[in-house]
UniProtKB/TrEMBL annotation:
It comes from Acer yangbiense. Its main location: membrane. It comes from the Eukaryota. The keyword Calcium does not apply. Keywords: Leucine-rich repeat, Membrane, Receptor, Repeat, Signal, Transmembrane, Transmembrane helix. Coiled coil: none annotated. This is Leucine-rich repeat-containing N-terminal plant-type domain-containing protein. Residues 32-70 form the Leucine-rich repeat-containing N-terminal plant-type domain. Residues 1-24 form the signal peptide. It is found in: Membrane. One of its GO terms (cellular component) is membrane. It holds the Pfam family LRRNT_2.
Amino acid sequence: METNQTLRLFIVCFLLHSLPSSSSLSTKNIITDRDALLALKACITHDPDILLAKNWSTSTSVCNWIGVTCGVRHHRVTALNISYLGLTGTIPPQLGNLSFLALLAIDDNNFYGSLPYELAHLRRLKYINFNYNQLSGNVPSSIFNISSLQELRLKHNRLSLMVNVSGGGLNLMSLDLSENSLEGEIPSFISECKQLQFLNLSSNNFRGGIPKEIGNLTKLKTLSIFLNKLEGEIPQELGNLVELERLLLLDNVHLTGHIPSLLFNISTLWQINLTNNSLTGDLPHNMCSHHHQAAVLKILQLSFNQITGTIPYNLWQCRELAIVSLSYNPFRGRIPRNIGNLTKLEKLALGGNNIIGRYLIESINNII
Ligand SMILES: *[C@@H]1O[C@H](CO)[C@@H](O)[C@H](O)[C@H]1NC(C)=O
Ligand SMILES: *[C@@H]1O[C@H](CO)[C@@H](O)[C@H](O)[C@H]1NC(C)=O
Ligand SMILES: *[C@@H]1O[C@H](CO)[C@@H](O)[C@H](O)[C@H]1NC(C)=O
Ligand SMILES: *[C@@H]1O[C@H](CO)[C@@H](O)[C@H](O)[C@H]1NC(C)=O
Ligand SMILES: *[C@@H]1O[C@H](CO)[C@@H](O)[C@H](O)[C@H]1NC(C)=O
Ligand SMILES: *[C@@H]1O[C@H](CO)[C@@H](O)[C@H](O)[C@H]1NC(C)=O
Ligand SMILES: *[C@@H]1O[C@H](CO)[C@@H](O)[C@H](O)[C@H]1NC(C)=O
Ligand SMILES: *[C@@H]1O[C@H](CO)[C@@H](O)[C@H](O)[C@H]1NC(C)=O
Ligand SMILES: *[C@@H]1O[C@H](CO)[C@@H](O)[C@H](O)[C@H]1NC(C)=O
Ligand SMILES: *[C@@H]1O[C@H](CO)[C@@H](O)[C@H](O)[C@H]1NC(C)=O
Ligand SMILES: *[C@H]1O[C@@H](CO)[C@H](O)[C@@H](O)[C@@H]1NC(C)=O
């Protein structure tokens, strides 16, 4: 029974794919939008609360349908939000006909299959969210050709390939591709998305080096590329990211070389997690020094590396420090007396080092 219904829905979905739309010759209107949404409805094989099956009825205007918002001026669909409905299905190419769509939120469902190329026709789209589905195949590079696009979220799917494009993502501010199976090198066009503020490529299979051109993304606030297979050194050019707040490159066990001292010249950087890489060399001694303001540093996590030398005295002058994890590195030396001045310190992990902490107990009473 269940299987028959699935099969039937599949056939309907398939037919709707291949039939020319009733309005394919004319200009697009609200009927085009209705047909596009009906095509989507036909591609849904499981709707646990029978929500769309009941509510998306042709006896009423699409503008009354659940999850659908129409614009006042043109009376066309401007937003489609069907997130968290537990839906299973595929994404039909007809969605590319919702030509006034600005917001598309299909996150937290069980949509599978690939993303249709036709989404690139949506020239007014600003926000796409397909997080937490089972989409596979390519990240369609055509999506980056939507010049209005500001936010693209594809977290937690099964995407495996991202093709390099040229000249895309002009207004993209936020890109989340984390928790997929993306392979190959980080596509270099990402560093041409000059408006990017948030970039998360964590938990994928990216290989190769961190492109030094990422240092050109001067509006970047968050750079998160942890748990990949990156190798080579952390480029000095990341020191050009003058608005960077969070840098998360942990669990790339082949990331080598020194930590670029320029990073500690970024006055906005408050979180650095480089745990479990293969970083070597001494820590730069310009951390939290007087002549610049990296005084906002709050979280510094460098455990499980091969960082040598002593812990720079300046570190203990970062007044905002809350979490410091330096364990399992060949650090040596002493914990200085002034560590007791760090009134915000919550966690200090120094195990697996050669550090002597004569003043540790007497000076720290706020550490848990
Ligand atoms: C709607 O989309 C389908 C598939 O992408 C296409 O064949 C059809 O021509 C489109 N309709 C209009 C009115 O553009
Ligand atoms: C569909 O849902 C919307 C929003 O909850 C509601 O206003 C509308 O009456 C429903 N339509 C039908 C046919 O159930
Ligand atoms: C979509 O709808 C869900 C649940 O109704 C809501 O939590 C979410 O904020 C909406 N998403 C957007 C982008 O408006
Ligand atoms: C993006 O648009 C340009 C023209 O504006 C076109 O040449 C290129 O093929 C498009 N790329 C993709 C991946 O659709
Ligand atoms: C990717 O595309 C850019 C142009 O946008 C080009 O400069 C770069 O060489 C390409 N990279 C690869 C690996 O093909
Ligand atoms: C990036 O994505 C990972 C995996 O989904 C998540 O755990 C992490 O919090 C994200 N990073 C940021 C800075 O949001
Ligand atoms: C991007 O960065 C590279 C290397 O860091 C540099 O040579 C190039 O001039 C930069 N390009 C732009 C457009 O800023
Ligand atoms: C380091 O990262 C690798 C994956 O890159 C993981 O398998 C390993 O368990 C991590 N080691 C530690 C100590 O967290
Ligand atoms: C770091 O910043 C300070 C103050 O802005 C500047 O004097 C110094 O040259 C910078 N260091 C580097 C390596 O750019
Ligand atoms: C730390 O506090 C002590 C007093 O406990 C003070 O003498 C010293 O100057 C302070 N150090 C810094 C770096 O602020
Ligand atoms: C990175 O730092 C380690 C400690 O060195 C923590 O255990 C991790 O939870 C932390 N991870 C993230 C994503 O910040």
